[in-house]
Structure formats: C-alpha cells, structure tokens
Design a protein that fits this description.
The chain is an alpha+beta fold and 1477 residues long. The protein contains 34 helices and 54 strands. Strands 14, 15, 16, 17, 18, 19, 21, 24, 37 and 38 form a ten-stranded mixed β-sheet that branches. A hairpin with a 5-residue loop joins strand 16 and strand 17. Helix 5 runs parallel beside helix 6 (351-364) and helix 22 (989-1001) crosses helix 24.
Length: 1477
Amino acid sequence: MKLYKLTTHTRGCNKSYDADLVMNLKDHPNANVGDVVEIYAPDEENGTHLLLQITEFNGSCGRDVISIESGIANAFKMRPYSNVVMRIVNPADVALDSIEITFKDQYMGRSEMWRLKTYLTDTCVYVNKKIDYNDMQIRCQVYEMWSQGERVASGVITEETNIVFRSSTSMVYLFLQMSSEMWDFDIHGDLYFEKAVNGFLTELFQKWRKLSCNHEVTIVLFSRTFYAAKSLDEFPEHMRDCLQQDYKGRFYEDFYRVAIQNERCDDWCTVLGQLRKLFTSYQATVLRYHERENMEIPPATNSSATQGNFLEVLNISLNTFEKHYLDRTFDRTGQLSVVITPGVGVFSVDRELTNITKQRIIDNGVGSDLVCVGEQPLHAVPLLKFHNKDTTLTSADDYSLPHWINLSFYSTNKKIAYSSFIPRIKLPLFGSQLTLHDGVGEGEGEENERHFLSCNQSEYKHNSLFDYDAYDEQIFQPLPAQSTCSLQRVVRAKKTSVPSLETYAYRNNDWENLTPTQIPAMRRKMSDPDIHHGTSAMLAALQPDTTNLSESLASEKNSRRAIVSIAPIVRPGRALINPFDPSQVTIKLTSNRRRWTHIFPKGPTGVLIQQHHYQAVPAKPTQAGQQRPLQQIQSICQSGSNNNNDQEDYGCENGEQYDRVSSHSLISKSASSQSFVMGDEKIDFFKRRQNSLMNPLPANVPNLTATQAKSYLWGATGEQEWTPAITTGVDWKSLTIPACLPITTDYFPDKRSLNNDYVISDYTLLPDDVNHDYAQSRAVYRKPLSTEEVCKEIVSQRLAQGFQLIVVDEKPPTAGGCSSASAVLPVKPPCETNKEYLLSIGRIFHKISLSGSVITVTGYRPRHPYPPINVDYRYRFHAPQHETYEISGVNFTTEKLENFNWNHMDLYICTRGDVDYPLMESLKYWRYRMYLLPRENIVSKIASCQRCDIFPDVTADNTREQVEDFVRLIEAVSKLKRQYARKARQHDTPRITEKHHNQLNSPQQSINVRPKLENGRIPRIFPATDAAAAPGIAARDDQDDGFPVDIKFSPNATLPEIFEAMKHPVNGVGFFSQTQSLPSCTFVSYDALMWLKTRLNNGRHPLDLLEAMRKERMICHASGDWKKPVVPGFVFYYVVQQDKNAKDYAPPLDDYSAFVNEWLEIEFQGCSFLWHDEPVTTPVPNFLRDSPAPQSWTETSSNKRVYRQSHLEIDVNQKSDRMEWGHVKHHTVLQPRFAFEIVVEWVTSSGPIVADLIGGWMRKANQFNFLVSVPADPMAEPFTKKSDPLRGPIFIPLCTTFLPNAAALFDEFPEESRADRMLFFQEAILGKFGFLPCVLEKKYSVGKDLPKEYQYVHCTGNMFALIRCATNNYQVESPILKEANVTRCVYGHTNNTNVPKKVGFLWAWNHMIPNKKWKAQTINNSADGELFQLKMLKDFREFCSNSDQRLSTFWTQSQELKRRAQKFENNNNNTEEMKLK
C-alpha cells in the first residue's frame, strides 16, 4: 500500500493550483483526468475517507506528493505533511443515492435545476463543497449526502442519484391557529400559545439565524367563530355579509389577522413581542367584533382546533403561490406554508374541499407543513375526519390520512421532577362539565349499544352508494380479486369500548353472515380514489401452497384481525380507514403518491425514511446473545445522526425506560431478528408486525417494493409502516431550508392501465423545416434552434410547469431501435440522435422522443378526468395598517391541467418566439414588471419639513436630464451603439447653470405645477437675450446635446442646407453604428430635434422642419414606410438621400410590422418645450378649469395603443449554454411626471440570466431615473381573480364638507362635470404628495358603464393609490361581488346603497420592494425614527380629514390661482384691444 506525502494549497493564490487535488502524472501513469480517488490516513482504515476527482496533473508538485485544497484538508482533519493512502476507485462503488444542495438569495427555476443536475452528473462532491455553475450563474453548496443507507461525507453523483434542492430564501407563510386550545395549559403548565411562540417559533427563528436563512415571511393568526343562532334573521344587518353555514347548519365566520406581510428580517425576535401583544386582545376582538350599542347579537364562541378553518388556510396560501409567475423576484425560490396548531393533528373537514386542497398542493408542488404543539395521540395523524351528514348511529365515520401534509410534533425540553412519563392523550374534562356530543344521553347511549349488538349483521350496511371506481377496477382487473373487507369499529359519542363487528364475527367464527353474495351490499363511500384493502394474511391465504385458511389467519392473529372473502371477482366497497391500525389498508401507487418521494433518503433497509420519525426501543438488559441486534441498531442510528437532527432535543436520561432511535434503524440488518425477544417475556407493545417492505419475508407473502403496486396509506413516503411506537419530532430541515419539488419521480403506469384508463394523443414537430420558414421572415436573423435544442427546451418547459422526469429502470424497446437506460439524462447510445424522455404531473404523462430530425410528443391524459370543483369562500381579514376586519371573498378551484395548450408552446419554441405564436395568459409565462420613475431624494426633504405634501415645490425641474437618461436606457435595452460617441457630458457646471437659469427666468414655474403635463402645460421662458447675456449658457449650449456646434443657421436657411448639415458625418446628427435590420444613417427623432434646436434661432419649429424633410423624401421612417409622419421621441428615421453604392450602405426592411417587433419605439409627450420655446401660461389647477385637460396621454398619443411588445434578446453577456429570448412590453409614450412601464416576459430563459439583464438596465438608468419593480396587481382588491387573498387596499376617506356653510364643492360648474372634477381634485391632492399617474389599459366591458378609475404610484415606488369615480349608474361584474366590492372599497362598510357614497382613496404598499430597502427609509429626526412609508400614510390621512385646515387651505390657494389667471388673461385681452385700436 503506497503512501504519499500530503501538502495543501490555497486555491487562486497560485495559478497552477486551481483544482481541489493536484498530483504528478509520473506517479500515476494509469490515471486519467476524471478518475475518482480515495484518500485516507493509513491508520484509520475505517475512518473518514475523502473522495476527490482528478481535474488536472501538475509536474511541479514533486514525486510521491499530492496536494489538497487547504479548506478540504481542514474539513476532513487531514494534517499537512502526514502520510496518506491514495487509490483510484470505481465511481459505481462510491455512487450517492441522494444528495441535498442548498442555495440562497437567487431564483432557480426547475429547468435550471435540471441543467444543473446534468452539469453535476459524474462529478465528485464532498460536504459543504461550493458549486459554481457559470453558464447559468448559479451558486450553491452541498449540504448532505446519502449512500447505501448511511450519511456520507463525500461521493460521486451518477445518473441515478436523486438531487434535492433546498432553498434558504423561500416564500414562507406561517399560520397560527388561534383556536380555543391556545388558551389551555399543557402538561408543564404553559399556555399552548406560549409553547407555540416562546417555544417553537423562538427555536425556529434561532435555527434560521444559525443557517443564515433569509426567507420572505408572512405571519397570519386565524380562527373560526361559531354563533349560537338558528336562522339568519337573528343576526343584525351589518353581520350578514360574511356568515357561512356548515354541514350541521351552524353559523360561523372566519377571521384572519395578518401580523407580518412579506418581510425579511435578520433578527425575528422583535416579531415575537408583536405576536404576544396581538394574543392578549385577539379573542376579545374577534368574538366581540360585531357588538354595537343597543343591539342584540347571537353569542359567539371560538372553535376548537378540530373544527377550525385548516384547509381554507392552506388554500388561501395556494391562491398566492400558484401566481408565482406573475410577480417574479430574482432573489428567492420555493414556497412553504406552515400551519401551527394547538391541536393534535385531527381536523374535521369537508370532502370536496379536501379533494381541492390535495390536488392543488400536489400539482403546485408546494411544501405544506403542519406543526402540532399538542400531545401526539395514540393513533395515526394527520387525520382528516370527513363531515358526516348521516347522523344515524350506525353510520361509520370516514377518515383520510393525507400524505401531502408533512407533520411535526413540537415538545419542549422541560422535565418534571417527579415523573418521566409523557402523556399522549389530553385528559377529558370532569364529569360535571362533560357534555355529550350530539345530545346522546347516558341511558339512551347504553340502550342503543345493546340494540346495536343484537342487530343482524346482514342488515348493517354502510352508506351504500354505488362505487363506480371499484366496479371499474373489478372489470379491468388483471388477476382474480384478492381482497378483504374489514368493518370498522363505529366511533360513537359515548366512549365505551364496543366490540367491533369484525372482532365479533371473528370470535364466533361467524362466516355464514358474510357470504360473497352479500358483500357487495356493504359498499361504502370512497375515502380516497386510490385505496385498496388487503392484508398480507389475505394474500397468503390465496397462495396455492397454503394448506388452510385458518392457519394463515392464526399466524396473523396478534397483529391483525381479518374477515376474508374468497369470492373470485367480487369486490367489497372501499375500506374505511381505522386510525388506530392504518396499515391494514394499502393504496394503489399513483404518481401523486410518488411526487415528493425523491426528497427522502434511503435508510439501511432500502426504504425511504423521514428523519424526524423516531422509534421507541425498550432498553432492558437481557442475555448477551439477544442484545446484539439492538446494539447494531443503535450504532446505525448514531452514525447516521448529525447536527440537523438535533438529537439533543430527543435525548433521554439513562434512567428512562426507552431510548429513542432514529427511524432508519427500525429493523436491524440481521434477518435473524424477525421479532425482538427481550428476556423471556415478549414485550407485546414492541412486537412489530412484519413489515413486508423492510424484511426478507417468506416467499408466499409478496414484497411491496418488488411489485411497486401498493403503498402504505400513512406517511409522506408510503414505505414506512405506522406503529404506535413511532414518535414524530419536528422536521426542522423542512422548516428551515424547505425542499423544492424534486425534478424526478419514478412512477409510470403499466401498459394495461395506459390503454384502458388514458386517452392518447400525439403530434410531431420538424423543427428544421419550421425554422427555415420563420427565420427568413424575421427582421433580424437569429440562429434557429437545432432539433436537439428544441427537444431539450420542450422538456425544460414541462419541468418549469411542474412536470417531473420519470426515471424508469428498464424501458420497453422503442421503435427507433436503441433507447437509453435512464429517462432523465440519456447516456449517448451508439445511434446518436435517439432520445426519449418521460414526464408526469398528476394523472397526465408526456413522452417526448427525438429520432433524427423528428420530435414526437405523446400525451396521455385520464379517460375520466375529475370534475372541476369550485368553492366560493368568504372571510374577514385585517392586514397591517388597516383599522378593521374587512370582508373579502375568494374562489378555490382545481385547475384542469389537461387543458394546457402544449402544442402552441412547442411551436413557440420551434419558431423561436415568432409573432404567429404569441405568449398567452394561459401559458403562464413569467413576467417582471417595472416602473421607471424620476429620482428624487424625498426622504431627507420630508424629514426637514415634517409634512409630506411638499410637491412639486421641492422638485427641481430636470425633465431634460430625465429624458436624456431615458434615451440612454432604451439604447441599452435595444443594444444600440452610436457611430460617433456623443461627447462626454459635463455634468457639473453647465447643468447647474441651466437649472438656476430656468428658475431665475420663470418665477411662476415652481408654483403648483400639476404632476401631469402635456404640451403647453408648463411655463417655460428661454429668452434669447438672457441666453446670450449669461456666459455659462453658451457653454452649455455647446456641449449639452453632445453634438459639437459648428454653425448656427441663418434665419432664411433653406431645407436642403439644413439637411446637408444634418448628414455631416462629424457635426451632423449622431447616427447609430451598423445594426442588422436598421438602414444605414439611422437616427432617432429626439436627437434630430435637439440638434436643430441649438442651431435654429428664428422661431422655426424643429418638428415642422423634420416633417417637411419627410414630405420632400429626404428622410423616412427606418422601416421604409413613407406613411409614418415624424413623431418626436425615441423613434427611428433614416436619411434617404445617401450614396447607395457605399460599402456600408444598408437598405430599409420595407416591412413595418417586422420592424416594430424587433425595435422599441416610444413617443415623447409633454416635453416639446425641450426643442421649442413656448409661450407662458398661468397654471390653473385642472379641477377648476373651464375645460379640464384629459387625464392621460392615451387620448393624444399618435398610435392610440397603451402598450407595445418587442422581441428581446436576454442573454446579452453570452453566458448561457441555452438559447435565451423573451419579450419586452412597454408604454408607447413617455411623458415627464408619469410612470413609464416596462415588463419583461419570458418562458425560455433562466432566472439568473434574466436577473443579470435587468440588473444591467437598473445600473444604466440610475442617474436621474430609477427602475422599481411593481406587482402585477398593485391594489389587490378583494373579489378580483388574481389578487392575493391576504392583501388588500386601505380606504382613506376624503372630507368633502370643509367649505363654509357646508356648501357643495364645484357648485359653480354644471352638474355633469362634477364627478370628473372630483377626480381631478383627488388627483391634485395625490400630486401634492408626490404621486405620479400610471397609465393602464382600459378594462373594456361590453354594454357596461364601468366606473372611471385611475392608478398612481408614489415617486419613491413604495406605495400605490387608486381613485374611482363614484357615479351612480354603474355595475360591477356580478351582483354578489358588487355589494362586497363596493362595500369594501368605495363606500366604507355598508351594503346599503342609499347611504351617501364616500369619496376617498385606496392605498396599497408595494411588496415587491426588498424589505431591507423599505426599512432603510427611516426619518431620522422624527420622534421615534418612524418609517417613511408609515409617516406618509399618517400624514395623508390627516390631510384628507382636513386636520389643521390643511385641505381647505389647499382649496383656497387653488381658487386664488384661478382668480389670478383670469385677471392676467383680462389684462392681456385689454392690451390686445388697445393695440387694435
């Protein structure tokens, strides 16, 4: 065994040592780059072995010396200059079964995960290894690895390795269930609330801090209030809006209190104090919320945890989660909703809502955790008990054990001095307080019991609904049915032990009553479409080698009692689940059941395990021989546990009776320990039923894993059997670094099932042919995707929409001849281009095969899809900064995934995003929405004035700089370069002079300028004399437009003279350098206007000159379309009269629509004063003008469209190994003092690459403007389709009665204009507070007079406001929604439409702004360093309520301005008349 000397090196210090491992090739003539070597200390044969991959050889490191990166050597405790053994190993021997990778502060989509998996295959990793995948700009780190049932420190990733991605920056919703138990005491004397907050949340936040997680968190307290009332008439009017009735006819109302909304904190401990404060008043507030003076309301009670709104809460979070593609942020990945309940994990639920929740959670791939702070019960949980509408005594309860909820039980580490006993039931109340449910009295109960036991069993039928699924399965059954029927013990109100039917029949050997003919009559309701009923004994009974039935039954006697029917093809109905013994029911494996299984590691027995399940093992001293297996178990467990399991939480004193051992030690490695015999007596509690998954069993009992057809009902993995000895801890890993939905799964239906239960459809794509046609018709030629790239992209898109790749061990040979072994990352087979991928989501399967240049997409969708379900839900919620619990409503619906238009998406990819296949809303494309806003340093200014209505007095007018900045940004977005770089701007002196000059010369300029300008709104004076007089100005003129001024035109210069000067290559207008699809000598009209302005001094209008040139055919729109007039702005024109023979001459496209699909063109409005001196007008506030100016530029823009879309190349830095493109949607008009909207839309791009592109733009635009990200639905009004159910606008009423004698506003104007004037008045108020208008597309609604509404954004981007016209004659979409929508938004809190309508504002926060920025804006010299945002809201409320007469002062100032303007106008008219005389 050859020894090597170990040295260490630091990466990056020495250029030659850039690898983890460096060695000399002469020592290893047989080694190749890519080989994996094992390194360990010779004396520690069984110690830690380090695996590294050879990435380079280096002759400079000496003979018999190897060098390891110092960080790795320290981590593996390898001392420099010690001797080590090194040998090459076979990668298959050290292959990993699964690996967990964590990443932080970045967005990694599912297709990026797949690409990263491909990148990591066949590489060697070790714990904490940092992985940089530069092509995708992804940074992540190895967290944990499992191989052959144990945790390991290093290994090789192969194609079969499951990669689990865990994000430490996720969107986390924490829901605290404030049910009545929160006010009860636990066994240690703590309130359950204290246990939840001081215990669980405190520990959780500490763990977040330790792992430096940076989650975006929302914390919500929720509860359900029941009212003791028989009918709706008992409730006063104001209470009826939100009442709902349950299946027993009880009235209830659900309350949600949002404590924290979308926040990120470094230290969450401050939040705990806030929660404690809320707790003290929560119950009183909610129960007495509706009390009014002199009004009777029905008595209210808080529900118990079981009766609470548990599923509703999960659905509310799903409504937000499923819109993840709308408000995309680039610094977080993953979604988790955690419900913290004081209950024990049992919930009484509605069956329909359960089905919706299950389907939505599984399809959306959202992690859902349930943390119980109650004691763990002695039956399987989580347990959903279905509402039973049949109240007769003989109706059995139906349960479901949801595998889609990850359950944790939190217990504190407190010890009681006198006892180590931990109770697992909550003791019932004392006799006097005990009220029997459903009013069954004592005597009555006993009577019923006697009657029940005496009744004939054949009459005892459960809800005999005909079970179609069971019938179908019986018909399509491949083998004879092998099934049993277990009738479950009836759970009754009086908790005495009633011998159940099955024990009764069993003891009396009463088989006659259960003849095969009668079994079908005992059909039951289905509790889960996939449940089968069968026991291993039953299966054994049907094997030919079993001699007789009773023997095989007796073998199972202690573990399970069964009644067996040996009827050939008769199936009893669905089995009801017995929560105390769930393992007797197994379910058919489905893709849903296996959706999350690849995140669990495999334990020593080859079974997937959950690391927070612990098995109690009796620790009794016994004879040495029998103790062996147990020691083995404990050693396995201890080697497997490390810091994430937090063993100390479950550590026990030596004196205690049981040791807790991690769940993967359930069964020892030695097969001899079929049952543990401790001492002489068998410990019955520990005698485990043989688990057919874990042990080599006798041949006559089929092994579940072998057939892969069935799985256990309980548990997330479906492979672990439930026993009362399993205790559940807290899954801290899932709560701190939640796993993303795995990209692989392993279930594919068998052939028979595919043919019988699925509808098959397929289509073929020939990318080469399609591309050939489309690439030619593009304005800009771009390299089309190769067939292989198209195939990969098609798979990527399905992954991104929640599909998973199916890894199957062996595939049927395909027609193509050769197919690869694994679906996920096909090994290159000998015949190069044949590949096949299998994908699934829910019950939909896709097969994508590539053969030569043909891609075939085969879809399998269920023949009998589940019917769509829709639940309409009403609730009250109280968001931060709101003052009341407001009404809201939301729909929970299941999505029909089979309706997704994959054919359209695949053609979109083939054609590289051609206009023929636009992105539609139903394709769920990703988008990132931004507003470009002027940069104003507001916070410090507000701090100095202590008032927030300081606009526009404090804002310097730097329209010109903003427009210049904007032009630079759009050039960057369009990736254009100028032929002659404009001279570097001198931002210092000349600029300042210009500003001062403007302010000196226009005294009225800063008075009450409305924040909306259009042509001729703002007084501007640029008198020529002044310009000449101020020496700084000439200098400014010389440099400011960036063009050197060579000449000034004489007043009578002709058009051709001006045109020739414009064409001058050095002193003319700056042309863009040669760019594909732009003709040579292309410029933008804004540049031409500014160029002309500095050279004309005789009042000729630059725009008229350009238009004249166009008419003379000197210039033309750059697409070659002569009909397009000259529009000022970032619009392309080119010089027509140029040398056609020059070598760099490029003709125009002559295709306008292709041209605009490639280039952004934006008209400039409201800034014509920049290129033309305009006469002075006195500003009259719009709401007092005789004819008010229009609200937005939509009426005056040249093309009447609000938005336009262009193609966008996304991978500007050429980093990605994938073809990346998207689209940019933008406003067609830029107007100063308006928000300019830009939306980036994509499906075929990677998150980090898009983030890189937008980051570049933000840096470009940041001198006088800035880009801020905004949500798709800023106001989140209730009852709107896409709104977030836990967000809502704040209504701020406007006082309208401040005039003396309570006169009405706008009395002097005609009545029909008053409503509009009120809007203009509100707009003027918003303008004073620094809000800018946002132009939105009109919501067209046929035949309906929709209310006018206008939206505004604050110039800091932090908040939005909306004003709506309160005219009488409008209707909102549907009558039900009308009342609540109107109620909540416009008129305060009443449904009575006769009440005078309130005028006011809706105010909402921008939750897309990162929290740290939000929090950074504190007003330092205010009393409590309050947040700028809250200060704004408070000040705005005060202004609107006319405190300190601020509103009426504003009104009188406006009237005064109007009077002045009229006076000025009269004087002007008089002077005109004098002149005429």
